[in-house]
# Entry
Amino acid sequence: MTTTSGDGASDIQRIVESAKRLGVELDEESTVRWMNSIAQESTSGDVVVDTASGAFGHRVAMLDFSPKDLERFRRIGKIVEVTGPGPDVESALAISGSAAQSKIQSFPGDCDYFQRLNIKAATRPEACAIMAKLMRDKVISTYRGDTYQFLEAKLGSYPFDGTHNGSPVHKGSPMSWTYAEIEAGQLVIDGPDGPAILRWDEVALDPGWCKLDWVVSDPERRQLSNASNVIDVTWEAPDGHIESLDGYLDAFFQEVYLDAEDVPTFAKVAKFVSTDALDEYVERLEGEVRKYLTEHLNYGKAAKRMYNVFRLSGRHLEAAYVRELFDEPATILYQVWSLISTLDNATQPGSSIPIDAVQAQADALVLDVVDALEGEEETEIVKSIMQLRQALELQDDGAARVAEVEAAQTRVINVVNTFYREKLTGMPTISDYITGIQGAVTP
# Structure
């Protein structure tokens, strides 16, 4: 692990002065408190339970968690959690990503969930079959409702390059399933030897990345969100050994679990997480940072992952600085960018999400942009969102709609990238980190 060296007081003063120069409000006293807390928690036990709320998670993750929206996450969790009858199916549901960092993420993106689904079975194929049935049953039972609409599932990996529903797919990448395909239990892809049928139950024997996606509405808040559930399915053999069905048992450094009653399931599964889990997790995060700094340029996504890299690898000064960026007014545009996709998903033909919910969310985005920006940038983005609002009201999935969505997102992400790039590269140690990552990529 890399740690920040030097005199603590002078280092903090230096980062405060750098933040001030860059126009970032960073309170020295609160920064010191946070750094003292994270240093203490990093050397303490792994997991802590918040007895007041019933939530639990890794001690470092719990530092950034606020229970103020916990009941909302629990309500949405009832939609996304995959469950099964009897004692042989165990679950522990968590929020992850910006949803789990509600103390610092003033403008979170989607409602991201992570579920540990442990299945007791005589054999691995039997566990896979149970998982496939539970996932299919969940999708069919929550296809659509007044406050939710199912979007797609990920299960299995494409066995070859080809085309699926008109889009190119690549061998080894996660398979995407529509509701109709899940209901039918099969999908068709056009491969090198012509059309091929892939069956839900068969691909489940090598499930790969398991994920379910919905768009949900919150009538009280007049807010839409994408809600996803990444499911780490494990098989518990008769001898008590536990293994992940996708070959990798995920670490638990960024999840906040919603119910203390799930501690026994979590603890049982977590015992089998690799002893090198933290190093592996940071390495995987840095792979995502590299992706968003090079292949798919998005400094906002990169910043969110950098924060987790820094706080888990001992670079607490850099983490403290990035932490403050999430509260800057301009960062609400990251949420605007994410919600444009949510609006698109909510108005696909056949969606059960009321159009007035879409209109209310679009109007809220306009107000957010007006509050965050001024001048030509504000005018252009507001214009894009209003044009998008009109296109979405038609609930037409034609080329004009796609163009409006892409235009609005492009204008917003350009501002987001400029903001995060300037703030991140303005801090010398973070600038060096970014340069190192970008320079390591061969053109």
